[in-house]
Amino acid sequence: MDPYTRLSVNILVSLVVAETVILVTRTRVLAKNGCPSQCGKLSIPYPFGTEEGCFLNENFRINCNESATSSIAYLPHTDFIVNNITMEGQLQILTRVVRDCYRAPPGPMTRQTTSLSPMSIYNVSNTRNKFTAIGCDTIAYLKGFIGNNSYSAGCMSVCDRFEDLVDGSCSGFGCCQIQIPDRLKTIDVEAYSFNNHVNVSDFNRCSYAFIVEESTFRFSSEYVRWIPLHQNFPVSLDWVISNETCVEAAKNPSNYACQHSECYEPFNGSGYLCKCPDGFNGNPYLPEGCSDIDECNIRNPCDENAVRNNALIQE
């Protein structure tokens, strides 16, 4: 093998090894030492945990419901399944659909409301979620509190014929969506009809309402016919360590979560989070949880020079 071919092969191997090191670093266990890091397929990084001594405080407890065939994670005191947790202050849950259904001849069959009231460290993300109503004789309400002030908004969805519905379109014709306000708490979702679906009962007997993570949802005209009772939609929550600012939190070292990392305040709400310093990655909430990134094993210039010198020496 000539020197240039050997040099090219060595550079390629070096880059593959570097990428592998990065991948392993990103996927390594981030739970507290000796604590479960998984519930089923869900990774659970500290400050979250499923057992006593494994989470920062009760706000970060995750209930892991284990059976012989599966393990499912829930937010405590709720029936919300936890689908994903990120270190950047996001947590995804699954929520059910609210429905108001009628039989033929007209008469109520099912009427539901639901509440989305997670603990104080969580906000329903106003940038990633949309309030959604589906049906052809539908009015849905989103209610809650912003601070001490009550909030209410409606979304109307109407249509006359199934053939007029357009998949992917949510502009009020069979499907309506509105933005969720920032820092909305104690959320209630309600669905109703204008006329008990009398004029559209041959293809639409229910009004539906739910909050959904916008990037995961695409309207299907089949939703107007029926959304299965077991259907859940993902909702994105923002989480923080506490509702204090970094300055306020640092005044109480015994409860301060960023003792081994850097504190910052996310732009999308009150409270603070922790992050590893520049040049480090890992879990900023654990002692020695942030590991130094060896830029010379990652960046091309260092790699190429080091490998070139090694190749020439070997020649």
How would you describe what is shown here?
Keywords: Disulfide bond, Glycoprotein, Kinase, Membrane, Serine/threonine-protein kinase, Signal, Transferase, Transmembrane, Transmembrane helix. It is found in: Membrane. This protein is of the alpha+beta class and 315 residues long. The chain has a domain at 92-239: Jelly Rolls (Sandwich). Helices cover 16% and strands 35% of the residues. The protein is built from 4 helices and 21 strands. The strands form 7 sheets. A 5-stranded antiparallel β-sheet has the order 8-7-16-11-14. It has a 4-stranded antiparallel β-sheet with strand order 5-6-17-10, with no helix packed on it. A hairpin with a 7-residue loop joins strand 20 and strand 21 (290-292). Helix 1 (3-27) crosses helix 4 (300-314). The longest helix is centred in the first third of the chain and has 25 residues, at 3-27. The chain starts with a helix and ends with a helix.
The gyration radius over C-alpha positions equals 25 Å
Tell me the number of strands.
21
Number of helices: 4
Topology order in helix (H) and strand (E) letters:
HEEEEEEEEEEEEEEEEHEHEEEEH
Report the span from N to C terminus. 11 Å
Shape: elongated
Largest sheet: 5 strands, antiparallel
The CATH architecture name of one domain reads Sandwich
User: Stretches where pLDDT falls below 50 for ≥5 residues?
Assistant: 15-27, 304-315
Which structural class do you get from the secondary structure elements? alpha+beta
Reading off the top of the CATH hierarchy, the class of one domain is best stated as Mainly Beta
Strand order of the largest sheet: 8-7-16-11-14
User: What is the helical fraction, as a range of percent?
Assistant: 10-25%
CATH topology of one domain: Jelly Rolls
Keywords: Disulfide bond, Glycoprotein, Kinase, Membrane, Serine/threonine-protein kinase, Signal, Transferase, Transmembrane, Transmembrane helix
Pfam families: GUB_WAK_bind, WAK
Membrane topology: Single-pass type I membrane protein
Subcellular location: Membrane
